[in-house]
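INTERNAL AUDIT FORM
Audit reference: QA-55
Scope: verify that the stored structure record matches its stored sequence.
Auditor: D.O.
Record contents follow.
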Amino acid sequence: MQSGHVVLGHGIAVGILVAGLAISPGHAGAEELVASRLGALLDQGDYSQTLEDEAVLNTPPVGSNRITPSAEAETDSLTSRIAAATASGDDQWACLAEALYFEARGETTEGIAAVAEVILNRVDSDGFPNTVCTVVNQRSASGRSCQFSYTCDGRPEVINERAAYRKVGQIARAMLDGAPRDLTNGATFYHTSAVSPRWSRVFERTASIGAHRFYRDPIRTASN
């Protein structure tokens, strides 16, 4: 089919151009002629080819603004980054891997990565120390407690679950190497669902993943 135009409405004439043949309204035998020409075109395969051409033209190109990544695609990207990561690194990697092991090793991949986000968001925030190790080992203002309880619970940090440590080590590596932080919406605090600290009543909750609830400090967020 070379072109076609049909205008339909109550009491409105119909004009059709089929394969170069103009058929005006009221043309004698117009319907039979149109049916005959369309049948010939279908037999030749022209009409199906036109549909294929239209489908190609109407398909958004890869990378165009008409295609937006889904949440599943973002998760797949994180998972692939972690799968390709090596569980090794310097002191900052070791501090992050240790924190993830003792704070979140029982969580899903997303749950562990979410805790890593909090630690790295703190590193990037003006309200916290600027290295992973100092963030993880930071004590409270009074000095009587720790930001991460496992660091001052009186028990030695012994890693017995090698497979779990390898997993958190890969996640730590991927996050330090720039994996996207899209899970907690900029959170710098979290707690488990088993407790309800006073600060959680005034902080902004940003996400709930597994056994953890994630928050931003509205005062620090406004000042950063």
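Auditor finding: record pair retrieved intact. The longest strand covers residues 204-209.
Action required: none
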